[in-house]
Amino acid sequence: MYKLLFILIMFTIALPGWSRGTYQEPADFLLEIFQQKVPKAKVIWLSGEVRDKATEILTHKPRSLRVRYWANNEKSIWVLDEIGKTEPITVGFVISDNKITRVKVLIFRESRGSEIRHNFFTRQFNNAKLTQQNKLDRHIDGITGATLSVRALTRLSRLALYLNQQRLKK
Amino acid sequence: MRIFKLPALFTAAALSLPMSVHASEADLQKQINELKSRIEATSEIVESSTGNSKSHTGNGKTQIGGYGEMHYNNLSGKGGASDKTELDFHRFVLFFGHEFSDSIRFFSELEVEHVIAGEGQKGEVELEQAYIEFDINQDHYAKAGLFLVPVGIVNETHEPPTFYGVERNPIEKNIIPATWWEGGASVSGEFAKGWSYDVALTSGLDLGTSGTAKVRDGRNKVASASAESLMTTGRIKWTGIPGLEIAATLINQDDYTQGLGTKNAARLIETHAIWHTGSFALRALYASWDIKGQTSGYDKQSGFYIEPSFKLSEKVGVFARYNQYDNQAGDSSQKGEKTQTDVGINYWPHPDVVIKADYQNQSNDNNQDQNGFNIGVGYQF
What is the reported pTM? Predict the structure, then answer.
């Protein structure tokens, strides 16, 4: 039995590898949300007070100088990256009327915690808004063993809402 | 001639003026566009040179991380148990990982326990993880190398900010026995929404031939370990509701003497549940070994704990834990049952830094108890 199990495991290892965790390409996410009519990308520069607030939300300095977003009159889309434990997680946020209307984990590169991509988890963010202190207006229940990924996703949701506010101030 | 030349010059200048202004605007726009392109290009270079990860080095494919904890124990022994008043930097751990490609990566964990290792010293230098992970497809992956056995709560997730109590719970230390790593290969993944599995074939325990061995003493640590008898591990886990985890692990090894004694099997069943809702959390775990051929009660080694906790704020949480275990549960006359109650507090000044304090009270069947308090500080990055 051991030999059979060993051969089975080695066979699966020897299979040509496909990357784990690319659930939807960001470009396809944009096409889906904007129903094939994707507006031109715009940019928010992370400088001055915006950079300071982004640093506060992320608990570290942002790794980029600007953030791209796509918006029409109804909604804006933000595709953001944040590291859970060692690898960046790519998440798409749809924001309408200063509320999150959809969260989709697009690419998950960490070894553990990929459960955060499921709808049973991400739907907790639906209709979430930002408080005066730039926190979410609700508690997000975590997933055991995925604590760092849950934290990363929560930070990104706050950042997306904050940047959307800055976009509207322009 | 002069008379005719001047108006002609004025006319020419007048005609050329708007063209010059127009040309300047076009030039300006061109310059603005060029500047925009240059800013864009500069930003991309700056962003790529700063990397896209918290601890990436070089080309961004190698990562480092780590955790550590220092403990102060102040325990009074009674019934023959020793006092313990000591300060110990218990664990200093560094992670190194490397991404060979999008689907093949390496992960390792190197640990120094108790500060100084070497002959006559209390410490150890240990390689706790070193494996290659291969993605099979979107939902399944395989590992080969030295990795943590997929069992229990603390064995795979044991960074100090992730659990309550200065010391790890005694059930996962003495029964499971964490931290427990073996060498071999495994396949893991998700087979339905919220359902995940692990199957592993690895090196196993060596409990010797005395017939009176504790499971914790049988860890080979993959140090030129005998591989006469391999160990199979299977785990199934459900995390289908946010905040809830229910898992069960079965471990089987046909010969725990590694071919040196009478062939006898060791089997572990472990199950646990974790529930977080709002500020409240509950952890409960049960583990039981059935070890054929052992005597003096060592043929059954089992235990359980239950741990409710409450977050008073984002930075402060309190807990209580009731632990009971017995390494000689196969014979009640051996007085091997140990009971420990812990109450304490965790303070997280940062999500990845924790200061802990707790009080422990033991009530062991052999009346040898160590009671007192513990203080600790820990971190992860």
Answer: 0.82
